[in-house]
């Protein structure tokens, strides 16, 4: 049983996180990351902001905006419902606790924060739109992607398109090309669309608040909007990303499914309560930094954590350990040691008298008033023998359990420690699909070997990227070959069907699809001219292929082709597939030629095991 008393309505509602409307407005709060702006600069910014507000209002009144976000009244109503159904155990109780959290976290962040290119750029940038752009690009790239991977992409991106105007005038092809290998390609496309919208419809100015950012810009959701607004514009708005989910679920011992709407709503409320009005961007970044570097998924370093003293997960572990040690054979009898008496549950400690009534040699009962009678009188059973059965509650008539605690079917697992939090309902496995794809090559084309690539449609999975001609198909069989041949001939005209070889398989998991590529190869014989490809297709050299806007999955496919074509090194670890027996052994001369044309795989080429859209 969880230590949280299962309380149905919150006796501390006035202290609960409902700060959306009372949060300081951006114009009044000074962004902490800014260097002290001079009066003239501030005045210019105010004018800029006021003009910008007018522009945003005009755009918002047009029909070209996303549906309104759940803010204002709707959001407050959600919060009232939420507060009525959770225990105060999962809240921050009072300003002292909130202040301690902010101060500890910010002090740690100032000391320990990583030196990252987007932070450097944003801190050194005075122009608000440029700063917002720097933050926007980094936040979009960091979604679902590791910091280490993003650094190089971010640096190249900002070198190529240092301003929104530069990005707006870029081609989608160029954007896809730079994004290749980063995964979730729609992110780059949306960023490009957003830049165009800012330049063409908003006079080159990025919307200044989380609400307008979310409403006006494609691909900008609640998190990204909050991050840009708080980091670039100093708006006191909290954010919740995967790292913050983990930190807050642990700090407030939230054991319910962290992907549920209820938990999500609660976490956003907590984030809003915690955000520091004087340093909102830093506080948000500090919480994310803590999750990324200290409160990590598998191996949290609690001993180095700046908010350990406020962390309920950590307190729970300590209590479990204490109880375990006291019940070991040979350890002092708990009945004899006053200090070992269980203390009232932290959830009730603010209101419980703490008087313990012995009902058995090692078991105490305490009655605690956690709220107005009759709903919130709690009994509190404590016993080392029960180890962790720490609190329970007389629920009010018709009430149920606290909805933020773990369900009774998933009890505390002592071997997991603080990683008992957060909990996620098991995800649906990705859908399985099969695709047949073929590397069609002219090895002796005039001007050097060429391979055929075709462009994917402009919407859907991997929209606009280039790939080898492919067909979605059944897993194997003659029909697969025939379907693939038809597709190849659609692009390249009549082909020698007998030369189509099956080379192996590549399995790539996208966000929601596990796609198995059946890899084929077809090398055209003799010296063939480079034919003019129809619209939507191109004959590329190997070098062009490696810099083109192709997905990681296609790079894997090409490696299989390279590993299995004549002249390839046998036993290549990169292509763990069996070579077809019909593939001819190449002559030594051919091997030499092939090695000359072997592609250069850049050091920063994405991992074969990467999982991304
Ligand atoms: Fe800090 Fe550990 Fe609590 Fe995470 S679980 S917030 S690392 S004390
Ligand atoms: Zn609870």
From TrEMBL:
Function: Involved in oxidative DNA damage repair. Initiates repair of A*oxoG to C*G by removing the inappropriately paired adenine base from the DNA backbone. Possesses both adenine and 2-OH-A DNA glycosylase activities. Adenine glycosylase active on G-A mispairs.
SUPFAM superfamilies found in the cross-reference section: DNA-glycosylase (SSF48150), Nudix (SSF55811)
Recorded name of the encoding gene: MUTYH
Family in the record: Belongs to the Nth/MutY family.
EC number of the protein: 3.2.2.31
Entry keyword DNA damage: yes
Superkingdom in the source lineage: Eukaryota
Compositional bias segments (type: Basic residues): 33-49
Name under which the protein is recorded: Adenine DNA glycosylase
Protein species of origin: Ailuropoda melanoleuca (Giant panda)
